[in-house]
Amino acid sequence: MRALDIARDRNLDLVEVSPHAMPPVCKLMDYGRYKYEQAKKENEARKNQKTVTLKEIRMRPRTDDHDVEVKTRKIQEFLADGDKVKVSVQFRGPDMRHPDIGRKLLDGIAEELKGIATIERSPAMEGRLMSMIVSRAPGWEPQKKQAATVATSKNKSEQVTTEEPQATDASQTATAVEETATQPEESQQQ
Predict the structure, then answer these.
(1) Residues 158-168: pLDDT tens digits?
(2) Where are the beta strands (DSSP E) in the chain?
(3) Is the pTM of this model over 0.70?
(4) Could you give the number of structural domains in the chain?
(5) Are 59 and 37 found together in one domain?
(6) In degrees, to the nearest 5, what angle opens at C-alpha 87 toward C-alphas 83 and 93?
(7) How far are the Cα atoms of 15, 27, 98, 186 from residue 30, in angstroms, in the given order?
C-alpha cells in the first residue's frame, strides 16, 4: 500500500518486476515512456538487421565456359552482399538423358567457389532442374571495392605508357610509306 501511495504522489506507475520473489519486487516508472523506448529500440535493431535473400542463377547444360565464369563472378557478388544463392541447371528435351553433364557443371562451380562458399544443399534433381544452394563461407571477407578501383586506375596508367611508343612507331611507319610512294615517281621521271 505504501508503494502505491508513493507512485501516486510522484505521478508514476508501480510495475511488478519479480512476482515470485519474497517479498515481490516492484519498480516505480512511467510505463508509457518505457513501452515507447522499447519500441524505439526494436525499430533501431530492425534497421541495422540484414535480411538474407535467396538469389537464383540459372544455366543450361551446354552453357559455354566463358558464360559460366561470368555467372560464377555474379555468384561471388551475391555472396559478398550476404545473400544465399541457388544455382540451377535447367534441362530441356534431349538434355534430360544426360543429368551427369549438369552435375559436372555444378561440381565445377562448387570447386571454383571453394573457400568462398559453403554448399548448404548438394546438387539434386527437382523435375527438370538440378540445383544446389551455396552460402558465404565463415571467415571469408570480400575484397574492398576501393582497392579494385585503385588497381584498375594503375592498370590504365600502365596502358597509357605502353601505348605511347606504339604511336611513334605508327608515325615512323607512315613516313616510311610516304618515302616508298615517292621513290617510284622519281624513277618514272628519269
Answers:
(1) 555 444 444 44
(2) 13-18, 25-29, 54-59, 84-90, 117-126, 129-136
(3) no
(4) 2
(5) no
(6) 155
(7) 9, 10, 70, 108
